[in-house]
Amino acid sequence: MSKANLNIEELFQKSFNDYKIKPSLNVWNKINKKLNVNQFFKFNLSKINIYYIAFSTALILSILFYSTNNLDINTAQKINNNNNN
Asked: How is residue 46 annotated by DSSP?
């Protein structure tokens, strides 16, 4: 084999005679959705989006609600124990 035959790009260009296929919009939409899902679940602090902020806010609010609710229950139990004694 000569060195000219080793170039795979030229081999494909010659065999397909520069034939090109343009994909439909449906294909690009599917690819775009997959890329967006992958990008959304990829953790990158330099690209914080509204979903991360919403999730963080919900997490903080739920922790605060649980801790204050738990404190109210503990306080009520202490008052109840003091009244029983």
From this structure: G
- The CA distance from 65 to 73, in Å, is 12
Query: Residue 82: pLDDT above 70?
Result: no
Q: How far apart are the first and last CA of the chain?
A: 100
SS percent in the chain: helix, strand, coil, step 5: 80, 0, 20
Instruction: Please provide residue 13's backbone torsions phi and psi, each rounded to the nearest 5 degrees.
Output: -60, -40
Amino acid at 20: K
Separation between Cα atoms, residue 67 and residue 85, nearest integer Å: 27
Q: What is the pLDDT of residue 58?
A: 94
**How far is C-alpha 10 from the chain's CA centre?**
40
Distances (CA, A) of 63 to 9, 46, 59, 82: 58, 25, 6, 29
The answer to whether the predicted template modeling score (pTM) of the entire model surpasses 0.85 is no
